[in-house]
Design brief:
With 139 residues, the chain is α+β, with helices and mostly antiparallel strands. It contains two helices and five strands, in the order H-E-E-E-H-E-E. Helices cover 19% and strands 31% of the residues.
């Protein structure tokens, strides 16, 4: 006689469905940039450098050749800490304080573009990613 409780087929099936629903909701959260209700305009491509900075938002995208800075923001997390809803996993794994990620990023605006202000975005995906050591600039 076993000391473990017997699980019925229905219980196992219910657990499997619950696990699948949780896994899908997490995946949808991470890949839902384009469908977020707070997107304020058309999504667009940016060739740039993704880096971590002090301040909020801490993850920022510099479009190469411009004087602009785009802030990667998760409005559900005030700290905007790197998490599943801020960056796609393949990009999150490459980025840290000592590394910059260069590439072509597909982003969606979370705020309107205004001169002299950082525009906030969500980052949907990246292609042609190239990781380089972060170089400090002495001023």
């Amino acid at each position: 006689m076993s000391t473990y409780p017997k699980l019925s087929a229905i219980s196992v099936f219910a657990l499997l469905i619950t696990y699948t629903a949780i896994a899908e909701s997490r995946h949808t959260e991470a890949s839902s940039c384009r469908t977020r209700p707070d997107v304020v305009g058309r999504c667009f491509n940016v060739h740039g450098r993704l880096s971590i900075y002090n301040g909020t938002p801490s993850i920022r995208l510099w479009p190469i050749g411009s004087k602009r800075m785009l802030g990667v923001l998760d409005p559900t997390d005030i700290s905007s800490a790197p998490g599943p809803s801020v960056l796609p996993d393949d990009i999150k794994q490459k980025l840290d304080w000592n590394k910059d990620v260069f590439g072509d990023f597909f982003v969606c605006p979370l705020s309107r573009r205004q001169p002299g202000r950082m525009q906030t975005i969500c980052l949907d995906s990246g292609k042609h990613l190239n990781v380089r050591e972060h170089k400090m600039v002495n001023r």
